[in-house]
Amino acid sequence: xxxxAAPQRGRRTALAEESRRKATTVPQPARAxxxxxxxxQCTGGTVMERVPINAPQGPLGxxxxxxxxxxxxxxxxxxxxxxxxxxxTLVGVDREDVSHMDGSQVTKLLKMRSHxxxxxxxxxxxxxxxxxxxPGDVAVAAPKPHVTVHxxxxxxxxxxxxVDVLVQSLLFHQPSGAGVYVAYALVAFGxxxxxxxxxxxxxxxxxxxxxxxxxxxxxxxxxxMSWDSEWWALQTDAALLVRLxxxxxxxxxxxLQMALFYAAAGFWKLNTxxxxxxxxCAAVFGVQTAARAALMLGGGDDAAVRDWEAVLAPLAxxxxxxxxxxxxxxxxxxxxxxxxxxxxxxxxxxxxxxxAPPAPNxxxxxxxxxxxxxxxxxxxxxxxxxxFTMRNNSALICAGVAALLGAAVQQFKAGRDPQCIxxxxxxxxxxxxxxxxxxxxxxxxRRVHAPSKARTRFVAVALLYCxxxxxxxxxLGAPNMYANLRxxxxxxxxxxxxxxxxxxxxxxxxxxxxxxxxxxxxxxxxPGDCTEELKPAENRARAFAAVGMRPFFNYALKRVIKCSYxxxxxxxxxxxxxxxxxxxxxxxxxxxxxxxxxxxxxxxxQVGYDADGNQVKCTGCTPDDVASQGPLPFWAEKFLVxxxxxxxxxxxxxxxCAGP
Length: 660
Hints:
Layout: H1 5-22, E1 43-55, E2 62-64, E3 71-74, E4 89-93, E5 96-97, H2 103-112, E6 120-131, H3 152-171, H4 178-198, H5 204-222, H6 228-245, H7 251-267, H8 281-298, H9 302-337, H10 339-355, H11 364-374, H12 380-392, H13 394-413, H14 418-436, H15 453-466, H16 468-471, H17 500-504, E7 512-517, H18 520-525, H19 540-547, H20 555-561, E8 573-575, H21 577-589, E9 594-600, E10 603-609, E11 615-619, H22 634-639, E12 645-646
């Protein structure tokens, strides 16, 4: 090019337009003789440059291509005529990413915000030149790409996430040591996150990053005694934190993680014990619910209550396990193939979990965790409309959240079951998620997401987590909640083996049977018989006896949320060598002299400790026995918790419900 090339380029553009109308060939002007090169002529390629535009109220007269946000026409009456050009791509509206929208979507969004008295802040992309460095010259770097991390979906997610974190922290968590200070900080930053995103403040991303980091530390300090829902939250929160720190959003990553978690939960329930009505955890929940329904329908008449029990309890025992498997697998497939359907089924499923089973199995806290993460499936247009409403009612939303949490804490202090309080919170948040997720994806088709290495890594971790029953690790926290799955000493699954690492010998002995103990600590926690805790107290035992239900165990109930057992009936139980080492370590640290007897195959071993934790007895021990080994290494203590399998009089042909 020569210095006079710019006018010629404009002339060529005009000739090209005329040529298209007349279907003729454009004559190319002769090239000018080469002359001294300027910086503008040292072009090494083109880059996309961001152009900020402040648009006024009212119609803008911009026409976009049907399948994208590329400008196809700028009307002469447009207030932006002469400021924007055909071919530019609209990528941001009020600092929110719109690059994935189509023409009709972005037009609708601009029209929705046309009444804003402050106007609209638009960001366009246009082609610009990048410059190569020449000898004796100073290179001009191309502008760095700007990444917008705020979107209506993520702003809405942050508000709901903060509400969930506050409910969990205030009602369910009982931290100790350094965890107390982390919990206080988490509550403070959780509240600040809610306010910052409700008021759409510029620094809201930074507050969310700190809150997410605190949440990860909080869960990490409480490991290994954490629910499976906290392992789900741990992975989704880590994904969001990393993506925010790299200047991106994690919506698609969380979507894939949740779909995998639901798929694993349904898949691992495909075992003979879960499908056995007398043993299934789902049948326990179902017969509980049938007993409560019989009380309500009987109207106080004992004969009528018994008649309803005779009808409802067998139906619940037979069909609840199959319905649960069908719903969990349907949610997973729906989230992957038809997100709007998957979200609706998920909201219904968790509403049932929160409200149907009486205590202690009304798992509303788990339902809240999942509900919040379902909002990431919200279509852009629906989420944008709800987000616009949120921004216009920021003060009202913050006041409502504060009132809701204040009432929840007051009810909790008055002795109300925290799960019932969380169930009320679920009813408040569920309509918001349904409103955000109404409709389909833009243009009636699923959104296409660019490949991402970070997303691939987090999905790989989620897949590994879903395979933990296959490996035989992380029994407390694995994605097989209430699945009656035998993870060691043989598999009861219809398709897959379990406990493969035990077969290699890497995790030590697979089964040791604790026969008896004098340790009050062990008697308090093991084997975790919660049958007497099941409600309703008026007729639950009768309904269970009528259909032959087996005892219900939940060792984690006291471990995780410090729930006390009315009658933890002692029974021998099986644990692997790793878990027995944990038991002996805790028994020694309890500060009371005690003994424990266990069987390793045909050998019986008795170990005793004094009040100072010193081993004073080890009858039948060899150097390789668990009783002769030291405490667990840190990694095993943090991540390898195994549930005790009670040894029942009927021989355990099927695995009883032994907790999550």
